[in-house]
Specification:
The complex is a heterodimer of chains A (620) and B (438). Chain A is an alpha+beta fold. Chain A is built from 22 helices and 23 strands. Bound molecules: zinc ion.
């Protein structure tokens, strides 16, 4: 068990939530579509003045020399998204939501919102910048008894949706571009991976309470800032699955610990990164590796560098990833496919003969390592320059960087962390004044604490149930069900117990549409089938059946009271000796028999009522 | 209250001075733009750098750049305390190494007249400044140095809507000077709103051009990485280097950033308020296209580069009015004292029948009247309908398939020549009309 307190773990979240309004700066609907629409080809070009600011991130992006293809579906993009028309003023509904959120986290709202341009030249914004405005600062929440600072609160436009990346061409669809996002950043006040999840759940609940945010995968995204005392701030972008949040944090802590350990051993060995790039193609003329063979045939070459003192730091036992992937990620920014290094060779068809030849050529000693790149000369040399940069950083510990979240809980290097200087005013949008009177008139939804208390009181749930409904994001659905007169314990039982059971069986209960679930419980309420049949019915619906089909396939058609009574009478008749002997004591055992007959079709309580009546009748 | 604590009054005294760019400065006595200040407001503190106040900001709002890079607007009244934390330096442009100039490359003159094409951005304030020197231009477009030996001159720096007809003469004369000084081609960086007017004017004013004159602009501001300014400028330079002569407009061909169209100076019109491909040739195909990345220029049916001595013919008489014909129009508008009138008629070149007597009155007074069509596409023809025939009978000059703006400029020019205006208007001087259309 890792002691995060001792490591000085600090985590801050940046939560981006899509709003269910029109787009922020035009009148397009905020809708993702399958339509491709017309396609545009564009370049983005940071001007000298931007690079004059010595922005590492912008430089690295620009060096890739990419061009971008934009798909412009007519249904959800217009000339504004294509950057062919100036933006309109911010959507008033989106603005109202952002202000509500600011008030809900007790933040101070500015007097005028000034939208800014944040330079983003990875192509995800047609303009080359993302428009963003700071709405409020200095908010705070108390979650699980800990104070979590919330600042700033911003309203910004979502980026285009990446569809494809092929060579030097990246394709984006503009349906997502311009969808309003509320961004809430917490302070670095979170101390454990689990706490991060709680904070995200809590803030997610606040956002949902406005009832005007988008739901579903990809509509809420978290960036996570992570550091430990001896490490550095690393930003992980684009975590979509809330439950994975602790995993990303745990893995990043592990990665930083690894980097710190390697830094120490490199220091002990007096590791050095030599400047020389060796041309090694001649040593690989006889190489049987397919990659090497075909590359050499295409006029490419093998280039390498020596990393003095790096032996064993690139890859650990049983293939454990150490510095190797870190070096490879930097090399890839130069456009190469990857690297080969001495800790993993011989392998991939490169044999010990070649490795030994390289060791000789590079004049290596026992603790030294080498890195090879097979590509065109210029690209290979650029890549090896990047490897050197990363290797030098490895001797200093953990570099500050931005990494992309991968679904499996790992992360990959994206770029060095971007500085705060990449913003300048959006001159196409006038300042947006916030009138204090307007703020006072805003109607705020209740806080999570108030809601949990109210659930307890109004619906007779216990504290744990109400809390779980909120944390799992079912609070709104639950409340809707209550409005339709559905029994609170049936509803909470379904959401909190049946759902997890269905998940265990491999279903995805969260895919069920709110309307469908409400329909199912309404049928139960109307006595069309008994609550015991709910799991089976939901399972059938998730297999693609309609509500009617599911009820019928589950064999749960209504049995009328008359028939029930007749069957029960027969059951008693068939066991009359037993009933005679036990009297009302026969109730328990007989109930088992009755349930077997009617499970899911007739409510258990009702069955026991009828059974009791009939036994009484029989006995008297 | 210490010496470094300022009253709101101080910050806002005197309140605003207007300036030409979007951002205006707040003149302060003790605090200046760029200073680090702290504002204490309703129990909270805001620390940041004081930025120029936005022109559209509300009363007593200051703009503060916070440490996280965001600007916010804060109202500062007598209630708030403002503390000066640190004097800031002047907001200066970062010095950037400019590429060296290679004098062996073709010499291309770039004449800047204003517009975003010839501007650079101050990224701290977002303000766009006009390029003043060669360095400013190369600073924003370092690739220029690899393609030509650029010589940049700033003639003036105006929004194109502020350019007056007499300035066309200044531009024309400067172009002649540049060719005389050995330029292989001249690029005129221009605001887009009236670029078509200027290109038409230069087409008429300049004669015996030895090489190309290329007007170029930018539709999407140069303060965005997606600006069309750079591609258009490089395309214009490629055309200016090519083996043609004459006056052209070079702008984006479509919404892709790959090709630019080459338009004849008299047949081109801005047809969209904002799109990067808003310039279109009307009643004629573009004369060619250019791929600036691959450095390919393809043209057809245009004059070649030559050894002629360029000269200016005529001058410009700005006293010509253009009247847009519409139902309910006031015929009195025609009697405005201009020395020439261009009617932008309906359909084939018509005006309401009741207006014709006023047109006759004008022509009888010796004021030439040219009729063009608000259809833009197609030619004027006064022989088909009676109102057209009546116009022809009173002596209106048919503008054929000339753009109304081109007809206006041509008339301004024709009025300064010795020949009969009617004869000049009916002569195809610079490809302004064509006999065949399809
Ligand atoms: Zn739109």
């Amino acid at each position: 068990m890792v002691d995060y307190q001792e490591l000085g773990l600090k985590v801050g979240l940046e939560i981006h939530q899509q709003l269910d309004t029109n787009k922020l700066f035009c009148s397009c609907p905020s809708e993702m579509v399958d339509e491709i629409g017309k396609e545009l080809v564009r370049f983005l070009r940071p001007t000298a003045s931007e690079l004059g600011e010595v922005d590492k991130a912008a430089l690295m992006e620009a060096r890739k020399g990419l061009h971008f293809k934009y798909q412009c579906p007519q249904k959800s993009s217009c000339l504004v998204e294509m950057d062919e028309e100036p933006p309109q003023g911010p959507d008033p509904n989106a603005m109202e939501l952002a202000l509500k959120m600011a008030m809900m986290v007790n933040a101070s709202v500015v007097d005028e919102v000034h939208f800014m341009r944040k330079i983003v030249i990875d192509g995800s914004n047609t303009s080359g910048f993302q428009r963003t405005g700071l709405i409020a600062t200095d908010g705070e929440l108390v979650i699980d008894g800990n104070r979590i600072g919330i600042s700033p609160i911003c309203l910004e436009e979502d980026a285009g949706r990446k569809v494809e990346s092929k060579g030097k061409e990246k394709t984006y669809r503009l349906d997502r571009l311009g969808i309003p996002l509320i961004e809430l950043a917490t302070g670095p006040d979170i101390k454990t991976p689990e706490e991060a999840k709680h904070v995200a759940q809590y803030i997610g609940g606040l956002l949902r309470a406005t009832r005007s945010v988008k739901r579903g995968i990809g509509t809420i995204r978290e960036d996570v800032n992570i550091s430990i005392a001896e490490g550095a701030r690393v930003e992980i972008k684009g975590v979509q699955e809330l439950k994975m949040l602790p995993t990303y944090i745990e893995n990043e802590v592990e990665r930083q610990l690894m980097l710190i350990e390697k830094m120490r051993s490199l220091k002990d060995r007096e590791a050095k990164v030599s400047g020389k790039v060796y041309h090694l193609t001649d040593l690989f003329k006889e190489c049987s590796s397919k990659i090497v063979k075909s590359s050499l045939k295409n006029g490419k070459g093998v280039y390498g560098i020596k990393l003095k003192g790096f032996n064993g730091t690139l890859r650990g036992e049983e293939g454990k990833a150490l510095l190797g992937p870190e070096l490879a990620a930097y090399a890839k920014t130069a456009g190469v496919g990857g690297i080969f290094h001495s800790d993993e060779l011989p392998a991939y068809g490169i044999e010990s003969v070649e490795c030994e030849a390289v060791v000789n050529e590079l004049d290596m000693e026992g603790e030294d390592a080498f890195v090879l790149v097979v590509d065109e000369e210029k690209r290979a040399k650029d890549a090896l320059e990047q490897v050197k940069i990363r290797a030098i950083l490895a001797m200093k510990g953990v570099p500050e960087e931005t990494r992309n979240a991968v679904e499996d809980g790992s992360t990959v290097f994206l770029r060095p962390i971007s500085g705060g200087a990449r913003m300048y005013p959006e001159t196409d949008i006038p300042p947006y004044p916030i009138n204090p009177g307007y703020l006072e008139g805003l109607e705020l939804p209740e806080t999570p604490d108030e809601k949990i208390k109210r659930f307890k009181k109004e619906y007779g749930l216990n504290k744990q149930q109400s809390g779980q409904l909120f944390r799992k994001g079912y609070d709104l659905l639950f409340e809707d069900m209550m409005k339709e007169g559905i029994d609170p314990s049936i509803a909470s039982n379904m959401l909190l117990h049946t759902y997890p059971e269905l998940s265990k069986e491999g279903y995805e209960p969260d895919d069920l549409l709110d309307e469908v679930v409400k329909e199912v419980l309404t049928r139960v309420k109307n006595g069309e089938f008994a609550k015991e049949g709910i799991p089976k019915v939901l399972g059938l619906i998730l297999e693609g059946n309609s509500v009617d089909e599911s009820i019928s396939k589950a064999g749960l058609e209504v049995v009328d009271d008359h028939e029930v009574r007749n069957v029960i009478k027969t059951i008693i008749e068939n066991r009359k000796d037993f009933v005679q002997e036990r009297g009302m004591g026969a109730m328990g055992p007989l109930m088992g028999v009755v349930m077997k007959e009617f499970r899911g079709k007739v409510d258990g309580k009702k069955l026991s009522g009828i059974l009791k009546e009939e036994i009484e009748k029989w006995c008297s | 209250m210490g010496k470094d604590v300022l009253e709101a009054q101080t910050i806002f005294k005197p309140l605003r001075v207007s300036q030409s760019d979007m951002m205006q400065k707040v003149p302060l006595t003790d605090v200046s733009i760029g200073d680090k200040i702290k504002v204490e407001k309703e129990g909270r503190e805001y620390t940041g750098i004081l930025m120029p106040t936005h022109r559209f900001s509300g009363d007593r709002i200051i703009t503060l750049k916070l440490d996280n890079g965001y600007n916010i607007g804060l109202k500062v009244t007598d209630e708030e305390r403002v503390v000066l934390l640190e004097k800031g330096g002047d907001i200066e442009r970062k010095s950037v190494d400019l590429p060296s100039i290679n004098e062996d490359l073709p010499k291309i003159s770039i004449l800047a007249t204003g517009g975003t094409i010839a501007s650079y951005v101050d990224y701290r304030t977002g303000a766009v400044h006009p390029a003043q020197t060669e360095d400013d231009m190369i600073y924003s477009n370092p690739e220029l140095a690899q393609r030509c030996f650029p010589s940049v001159e700033v003639l003036f720096s105006k929004l194109s809507e502020d350019i007056e007809p007499n300035e066309w003469i200044l531009i024309a004369d400067s172009i002649i000077k540049e060719f005389q000084a050995g330029a292989e081609g001249v690029v005129v960086a221009h605001g887009t709103d009236t670029m078509g007017y200027t290109s038409a004017a230069l087409s008429f004013l300049l004669d015996d051009l030895p090489g190309p004159v290329v007007l170029v602009g930018s539709q999407r501001s140069s303060d965005r990485p997606s600006s069309d300014a750079n591609l258009n400028l490089l395309a214009a330079v490629e055309v200016a280097k090519s083996d043609i002569s004459g006056v052209y407009v070079v702008m984006h061909e479509n919404l892709d950033d790959n090709r630019c169209s080459i338009h004849m100076g008299t047949k081109v019109r801005k047809m969209h308020t904002s799109r990067r491909d808003s310039f279109k040739s009307v009643n004629k195909e573009p004369v060619g296209w250019v791929d600036p990345e691959e450095r390919i220029v393809k043209v057809e049916g245009v004059p070649c580069r030559n050894k002629k001595e360029p000269k200016r013919i005529g001058c410009i008489n700005g006293d010509v009015s253009m009247i847009y014909v519409h139902p309910g129009m006031d015929e009195g508008l025609l009697l405005n004292g201009s020395e020439g009138v261009v009617l932008v008629g309906t359909g084939l070149g018509h005006v309401p029948t009741r207006v014709i007597s006023t047109v006759k009155e004008l022509i009888d007074e010796g004021v030439p009247v040219v009729v063009t069509s608000q259809c833009l596409h197609g030619t004027v023809n006064c022989n088909v309908y009676s109102s057209g025939r009546m116009l022809a009978e009173v002596g209106v000059i048919p503008g054929k398939d000339m753009l109304p703006e081109t007809a206006l400029v041509k008339l301004m020019w024709a009025l300064t020549l010795d020949d009969k205006v009617e004869d000049i208007m009916e002569t195809n001087v610079a490809g302004e009309f064509s006999e065949r259309r399809w």
